[in-house]
Design brief:
By secondary structure, the protein is α/β, with parallel strands linked by helices. It has a six-stranded mixed sheet with strand order 6-7-8-3-9-10, with helices on both faces. A four-stranded antiparallel sheet has the order 2-1-4-5, with helices on one face. The longest helix has 16 residues.
Length: about 240
């Protein structure tokens, strides 16, 4: 399949609320695809559906040619949640050595991923003593272990200063050039310009599947915030 991720008619309920509504998307391989939209638009629910951690009501999700959640995908996908997924009472290196053993990644990966997320000075520091942004980067480093084919990253740049945000997006672009597929969620519309393609969600529906340039042309706007507002107005008309 050409798509790293493909969904058809995906529907997810939470109580009586439709969180995702007949969502059909396609994420190309080897690209940085931004999953953008305000809080509550369904981004995290979609990501959990992709990694097989979400019960779905209808539809299908295919990941790297297999059904989402298939055991064969466990070592092929790196997933970073919004909440930290590392241990406060271990150092950065201890956390990563532990996760490397869990997924049978080479021991040499630990040094590599620490450098990739710019945490070399904090290598032997307890995670519990790090800033929120640094903890997010430890979680990202864990997801990079084992060189996964697909990275699903839920708000990975939250809490980072502009320089670190820029550096992470440069890392994402480098990984894509190596053939890694990335789905990166954000509620910061300005980050759209850093993506190869954009999936724009609102209230569990897909408003746009476009390149950053195509989104501006389609909406006749000059920035992603205005484009989003234009699409909402069109959907409501």
């Amino acid at each position: 399949m050409d798509a790293a991720i493909h969904s058809e008619g995906l529907r997810v309920h939470r109580g009586k609320l439709d969180v995702l509504r007949d969502l059909s998307i396609s994420v190309p391989r080897g690209q940085v695809v931004g999953l953008l939209g305000p809080s509550g638009s369904g981004k995290s629910t979609l990501m959990r559906s992709i990694v097989g951690a979400q019960r779905i009501a209808a539809g299908t999700v295919t990941v790297l040619g297999l059904p989402a959640g298939a055991p064969a995908l466990r070592q092929r996908i790196g997933y970073v949640t919004q909440a930290p997924s590392v241990y406060d009472d271990l150092t950065v290196a201890q956390n990563l050595r532990y996760f490397a053993r869990v997924i049978s990644a080479p021991a040499s990966d630990v040094e590599r991923v620490i450098a990739e997320v710019d945490l070399v000075p904090q290598t032997n520091q307890l995670v519990g003593s790090l800033s929120g942004g640094q903890i997010n980067r430890v979680s990202l480093a864990a997801a990079l272990l084992g060189s996964p084919e697909l990275l699903v990253l839920d708000e990975p740049t939250v809490g980072l200063d502009p320089v670190l945000r820029r550096d992470l997006w440069q890392l994402f672009a480098t990984l894509a050039r190596r053939g890694v597929s990335l789905l990166v969620s954000s509620h910061v519309m300005d980050e759209a310009r850093r993506c190869d393609r954009i999936l724009l969600l609102h209230n569990g529906t897909l408003l746009a599947d476009e390149t950053p340039e195509g989104l501006l042309v389609t909406t006749g706007t000059t920035d992603a915030d205005d484009a989003f507002l234009t699409l909402i107005a069109r959907a409501a008309a």
